[in-house]
Design a protein that fits this description.
Layout (H helix, E strand, L loop, with lengths): L7 E6 L7 H11 L3 E6 L9 H8 L16 H7 L2 E7 L1 H9 L5 H8 L4 E5 L3 H5 L1 H12 L3 E2 L3 E4 L5 E5 L3 H21 L4 E6 L4 E2 L5 E2 L6 H12 L3 E6 L14 E2 L3 H12 L4 E4 L6 E3 L18 E3 L3 H7 L6 E8 L3 H11 L4 E6 L11 E8 L2 E10 H15 L4
Parallel strand pairs: 1-2, 1-3, 3-4, 4-5, 8-11, 8-13, 11-12, 13-16, 16-17
Antiparallel strand pairs: 6-7, 9-10, 14-15, 17-18, 18-19
The structure holds cytidine-5'-monophosphate.
The site of cytidine-5'-monophosphate (C5P) has 15 residues, from helix 11 and strand 16.
Length: 405
């Protein structure tokens, strides 16, 4: 595979005994034709000398954002990279990356990088298992970074278990495979503009209370990320979600209510080839928003509700010949019938059904289990898997259904 030929790989090394493995990694990457530049944390220089990396990479190695007389341009290096690989990534570097603590060259470059970032952790068994590590890994994943799984075996501490950095040849293989896939993928939706709604909406009752729902926005964000990786121009219109948004979709429009979501969608819908309605839009809102906090009184109270705009149905009415609309249905009973009815009623071309009856599927989970229906019936039955993978499967199903290739 020649996929690494001419690719700019920024290898960031942090302070673990596994740093020696990154010398082999450098050699392999160079052999594959990549241009390799190495940056190191101070701690890593206690394990391997910068001279070893500069000799192998044939490039100067940076260990500091500035030296006595010059400033090392981390922005330039971050932009130069086609791929950034943090290997080994210690618990400390992981925590700094997760929280944006740019007090060294590695994290400064990480924050400046616009390319895919791969992280190969290396640490002791108990550090690896610690909730802090798990949380930081989850944060990096939520930024769209790729975590390379650790291996199991004897660790520097003498303990045996999980925490070893993946072997250099496997890391190279993962890079090659992902780069090949992403090169293929990046063409699938090129030239297409996609509108995606995601998350819940909040309908204000007074300045402190609202009617909302438990949607996390995860599925819609994963769809936006997948479409972007597949080469589309993406408009993500996101309700109040606590999820972090991957770096590649930073032009996200944030909205609060169904009305705001409707307006934001109407602005861009005309330019879109595909619209995916993944948001859990509130169907009703308080008929009146109180300017002041509602005070409690003796006895019960009732709230008058009115309908919100149905975004999918409204835009479905004005759908042009070339536009494809994909809807979602989350049902608790008569799932298939309800989904098929919505497909017709809202003028969708496809509808994705997820059932609240399936454990692990639907709201707030990281996983989903779905069925996809077109007007002719069921076209895909996708098992329980991560929402990220599900997002790719939904787009691939649409690509096949509408012959976009
Ligand atoms: O009717 P129901 O809410 O179940 O329909 C779900 C589909 O319609 C989803 O695709 C959802 O994003 C969309 N929808 C919408 N605006 C609403 C209600 C639902 O776009 N007000």
């Amino acid at each position: 595979m020649k996929i690494l030929e001419g690719k700019n790989v920024l290898l960031a090394v942090s302070g673990s005994i596994a740093a020696y493995k990154s010398l082999f990694l450098t050699r392999q990457l160079i052999k594959k034709g990549a241009n390799v530049r190495v940056i190191m944390t101070k701690a890593s220089c206690d394990f391997v000398r910068p001279l070893s990396f500069s000799t192998l990479s044939k490039n100067e190695v940076f260990t500091d954002v500035s030296s006595e007389s010059s400033w090392n341009n981390h922005v330039e290096l971050g932009l130069w990279a086609d791929v950034m690989l943090v290997a080994p990534c210690t618990a400390t570097t992981l925590a700094k990356m997760a929280n944006g603590i740019a007090d060294n060259m590695v994290v400064a470059c990480y924050l400046s990088a616009k390319c895919p970032v791969y992280v190969a952790p290396a640490m002791d068994l108990d550090m690896w298992k610690h909730p802090s590590t798990k949380r930081n890994l989850a944060l990096l994943e939520s930024y769209g970074n790729e975590i390379i799984s650790v291996g199991t075996g004897e660790l520097a501490s003498g303990l045996t278990g999980e925490g070893r950095m993946e072997e250099p040849e496997n890391i190279t293989e993962i890079l090659e495979k992902n780069l090949a896939d992403s090169t293929e993928y990046s063409k699938v939706l090129s030239g297409k503009t996609v509108l995606i709604t995601a998350g819940p909406t909040y309908e204000d009752l007074d300045p402190v209370r609202y009617i909302g729902n438990r949607s996390s926005g995860k599925m819609g964000i994963a769809l936006a990320s997948a479409c972007k990786q597949m080469g589309a121009r993406v408009h993500l219109i996101l309700g109040p979600s606590a999820e972090s948004i991957p770096v590649e979709i930073q032009n996200t429009v944030r909205v609060l209510s169904a009305q705001e979501m409707m307006e934001a969608c109407s602005e861009v819908h005309g330019d879109c080839d595909v619209a995916i309605f993944a948001a859990a839009v509130a169907d009703y809102r308080p008929a009146e928003i109180n300017r002041q906090k509602i005070k409690k009184k003796a006895g019960d109270m009732s709230i008058e509700l009115e309908r919100t705009p149905d975004i999918a149905a409204t835009l479905g009415n004005s759908k042009k010949e070339h536009q494809i609309h994909i809807g979602f249905a989350l049902e608790t009973e008569h799932e298939e019938d309800n989904a098929k009815r919505k497909l017709e009623k809202k003028n969708f071309d496809l509808i994705v059904l997820n059932s609240l009856n399936d454990p692990g599927a639907g709201f707030a989970h990281d996983t989903n289990k779905i069925k996809i229906y077109a007007h002719e019936g069921l076209i895909a039955n996708i098992p329980l898997q991560s929402k990220k993978k599900t997002a790719f499967d939904i787009i691939e199903t649409a690509v096949q259904q509408f012959n976009w290739e």
